[in-house]
Amino acid sequence: MGEQVKKNTGGWRSNKWFRAAIPALLLHCSIGTVYCWSIFSQEIADYIGFSKGATEWAFSFAIFFLGMSAAFLGNVVEKDIHKSSLLAAICFSLGMAGTGFFIYYGGMHQGSMLSLIGIYLCYGFLMGVGLGTGYLSPVKTLMLWFEDRKGLATGLAVAGFGAAKAIASPIMQTMLDNLGEGGIYKMFLILAIVYFIMMFAGHLLLKKPDGWHEPQKQEKGQGALDVIKSKPIANYIGIWLMFYINITCGLALISQEKMIVKCIGLASAAGVIATVSAIFNAGGRLGFSAWADTMKDRNTIYKIIFVLSIAFTGIVLVTNGIKNGEGNYLLIALVLGLIFVVNAGYGGGFSNVPTLLSDHYGMGNISAIHGITLSAWGFAGLTGNQMATWIVNTFGTEVELEHALADGSVEILHVNPTGYQFVLYATIVLYIISLVISLVMVRPTDKAKAAR
User: Which domains does the chain have, with CATH numbers?
Assistant: First the structure.
């Protein structure tokens, strides 16, 4: 197959960049904007007359249904990437347009449960289905086209998912600032059209390489669960748990990132730091996966991610960096280092899981197996943020910090430094558990054993 692909890379119709990389970026850069939720969540809550906590569930549902749709529709992606990528474009853009409509309705009928439920269904369920199928659709195609650099290829696409927040956030903020009254629902309606065009273009371009189907048929023969059971089941459970815990820890810290930055006296730079952390997130997706291509056992990259996360979390805990960081440049650097390392490791966990799975279980049912594994993302979406919120609300006490604004006035910030430190106690324990799992449960592949 690889030889045939190389023969057919002359024209754009059979070029791996036009048929795999570019459509993957079009799809992932669109659906990745789900992580822009924090940019407009407060505006939605204010516009429809509900608390921010009530509207936050829309994002949690989106991530949950991303994982569930990937798990249950993985076989659809396996059989026909054109149907799955079209389904992704339709569901994601309809979900975004529907969210805009129900925000509009909520503005007309403040406090209406219909508007809140409508947002849950559109942003949570419909967009979630678009996210799951859109995330999966290009991954196997990339690995088939870039069979010698599978990690680099999947990292490139998944980096688009991570970079979407950095790209779209300033655009969304500009739209909110300039669209006038009702700008929040107008933004959703406009972006629904833009993202449908991008995703539909990706759907039209996406194509598996000529000759891929014959080896696929030879490998297939059995379902995804049968393939998983062909190896010790503890191996797959270990991969699933590593993936789940890494996402849970990442979401726990990222959800508190803005408040932690305020604690260390960088409130005025919170927007810049959020952009830089998003770049680390995207860079981790590309860098860690490309690095893993050079390793005999891709599981090594997870061990590196967990060791780095444990080290930086431990240093910030020992120095009490969040509580004592304001005015101390060394502690500020350590806290920022923690934020950036966790973001990079969070992204790297995503980009390496499909290639790790393909090393263990082959390419025959990789879309379906990857889809089942993404259920970990769905469950982490329901637990990561909520775990951190519960810890912050339960431990420590809220204190007031003064923040000087550009116009000379002073803003009072309410933060809980002790609570954020306790979040780190929870994440370091989970990271240690993940490291043990990667060492004990996830065994080296046959290829890695042979290379020893």
Answer: 14-210 (1.20.1250.20), 221-443 (1.20.1250.20)
Placement of tokens 């006035």 in the chain: 409
- Sign of the Cα torsion 254, 260, 261, 262 reads positive
Q: Which of 174, 217, 3, 201 is nearest to 85 (CA)?
A: 201
Question: Tell me, what DSSP letter sits at residue 415?
Answer: E
Specify the pairing of strand 410-415 against strand 399-404.
antiparallel
In the numeric block, which tokens belong to residue 190?
């406009």
Tokens at 74, concatenated: 């993985």
Instruction: Tell me if 122 sits within 8 A of 130, measured CB to CB.
Output: no
CB distance 129 to 84 below 8 Å: no
Q: With contact defined as beta carbons under 8 Å apart, do 349 and 302 qualify? A: yes
- pLDDT tens track for 245-298: 999 999 999 888 888 998 888 888 877 888 888 889 889 998 999 899 889 899
354-380 pLDDT per residue, tens? 999 988 988 878 888 989 999 999 999
Q: What is the pTM of this model?
A: 0.83
Question: Hey, is 397 helix, strand or coil?
Answer: coil
